[in-house]
Structures are given as C-alpha cells and as structure tokens.
Amino acid sequence: MSASPRAGQSRPVTTSTFRANKAAGRRIAMVTAYDVSGARLADAAGVDAILVGDSLGMVVLGYGSTLPVTMADMLHHTAAVVRGTTRALVVADMPFLSFQVSPEEALRNAGRLMAEAGAGAVKLEGGTSVAPTVKRLTDAGIPVMGHLGLTPQSVNQLGGYKVQAKESAPAIALLDDCLTLQAAGAFAIVFECIPAELAAIATAELDIPTIGIGAGAGCDGEVQVFHDLLGLGGDFTPRHARRFAEVGALITSALAEYVDEVREGAFPGDEQCTHMDPRALDEVRAARQGRRRAGEEE
Ligand code: KIV
Fold first, then answer.
1. 274 and 192, same structural domain?
2. What angle do CA 163, 32, 110 make, to 5 degrees?
3. 93 CB under 6 A from ligand 1?
C-alpha cells in the first residue's frame, strides 16, 4: 500500500490538545468514522478526534463481532478517513491479533497505520498486560490511546457485551490498569461500559484524559459510534447512545422516492440531461441514413 496523500500532514488537534483540554476542563468530543464522507461530516461538525474503530467490522462490514477485522481493513479505512479530515486527530484502532503477539509485531503494525494510512495515533485494548507494548510504541514516537472496561476483542472471554467492573475487586484492578497505562506513556484512555462512579474516580486520579462510552458524564470526553448517533444501525440503539437524528429513515425514504421516479419515468428530467449540438446531431442522423440506404442497395 502506498502512503495516503494526507499521511504525515499535521492537523490542528494533536495529542497535546487532549492534555491541554483536560487541564483547562474543556471536554473532548470524539466520534467514529470509517470512510471519507463520514470523516468530512464529523470534521465539519468540529469533533476533536475521529476514531477509526474496529467497530467497522460490525457497523460497516456486517460481521457479528470485531474479531474478523484485519490490518488490511484498518489500513484501507483509516487512509480514507485521513483523506476526509483536515482538523481532527485521527486515531486508528489496532485490530485483533495485530498487537497481542509481541511488542515488536505491534510496533510494525502501529507504524503501518501511521506511515501508510496517516493516522495521528493508535488505540489498543487492554490493561497491565499490554503496558510493555504501549511503552514500546510510545518510545518509538507513536501516540497510544488505551481502552479499558468492556473490551470487545475479548467478548468471548467476557461472556458478552456487558458492563464491567461493577464489583470492588475488578474496579480496583481497573484503577491499577489506568495508572500502569499512563506510566507506559498512553496519552488518553477510553472507558467502555463501566460504572459512572468508577470512571469519575479514575478521571480524577489520572493526568491524562479519559474518554467515556457508557461510562457516565464524569470523563474528560465522550466517544460514540457514528451509526448509533445518526440512526444508521437499524432498530437497535445501545443503551449508552442516543440518536441525534434519524438519518437512516431519511435515506430510505429518499431512495424510495428515487425508485418511484425511475419507474414512473419522472427521473432523470431535462435538468439532468446533456444535449447534442444540433449541427452534430444532423450529421449523425445523415450518416445513419446513408448507412441504411447503402445496406438496402446491397
Ligand atoms: O471500535 C470502536 O468503535 C471503539 C469505540 C466503541 C470506543 O473502540
């Protein structure tokens, strides 16, 4: 894969902006996007960061989990998002098995997301066990966002998409994970589906920003899946999301109108047509007539 045309281009929002926002008490707004049009819309709306999440597998590619998402998928979609973004920081998710095997393999894969696709940072799931990998990446100059709580790549171990760390022991373990990730160099941590009180305690203890999804309002920022916010995911809306618009219903009704108009012959109309220069048209007609006559004489 050759480098995305915008790879390496700096953007107004960087990982330093994240830290400055936390210090100033400015909340961080983040949303997922997976292609150039989604990225343009999110960037124009003024989000601070766009996450090319491996939720791609479920909301765009139709898989039942994020596990089948590959490095090739992430490179392809991250590059498209980077091409559609001029302001926001683009964070690329590291897919299943791209970082778990060894810190060296993680470095190679994270490096590809940065150098080839143009991401400004990567995100990876896990706590203390991935800290050596976070350190390896950050030592190499790659900003890393952590991800704790409900980590969808471990759905089979977690026994489903459930709220995590509701009891004291896992809650204390999560707080330890936070401090370990921060010490390893993570610039921010996503908390997915954990109790609001726990997210607020962690947010107060950490110097780096926390970004919640199903983690209450006490985080330093929020991330949500594009399709969940816009009603593009069918009837289901996760409890932690709200539909800010019914874009899916709007698209279906617009396409149904298109189907009707094509069938009725109302579309395309004259405004959508290009007409030939009358002289050229006369010449075409004369040429066709000449050919027909020649055929009749044979
Ligand atoms: O893949 C994703 O979209 C995510 C968010 C849910 C945080 O990891």
1. no
2. 95
3. yes
Residues with Cβ within 8 Å of residue 117, at least 6 apart in sequence: 1, 4, 7, 74, 75, 76, 78, 79, 82, 92
Domain of residue 37, CATH code? 3.20.20.60
CA of 124 to the centre of ligand 1 (A): 10
Provide the domain limits for residue 284: 259-297
Distances in whole angstroms, Cα of residue 262 to Cα of each of 24, 155, 267: 55, 45, 5
Same domain? For 198 and 172 the reply is: yes
Residues 147 and 269 in one domain: no
Residue 7 within a domain = no
> Per-residue pLDDT tens for 232-266?
988 889 999 999 999 999 999 999 999 999 999 99
DSSP string, 59-124: HTS--SSSTT--HHHHHHHHHHHHHT-SSSEEEEEPPTTSSSS-HHHHHHHHHHHHHTT--SEEEE
Atom 2, ligand 1: residue with shortest CA distance: 53
Which amino acid residue places its CA nearest to atom 3 of ligand 1? 53
Q: How far apart are CA 155 and CA 140, in angstroms?
A: 30
| Count of domains for the chain | 2
CA of 283 to the centre of ligand 1 (A): 61
pLDDT per residue over 10-58, tens digit each? 779 999 999 999 999 999 999 999 999 999 999 999 999 999 999 999 9
What CA–CA distance (Å, rounded) separates 241 from 32?
13
Do 293 and 240 reside in the same domain of the chain? Answer: no
pTM above 0.85, yes or no: yes
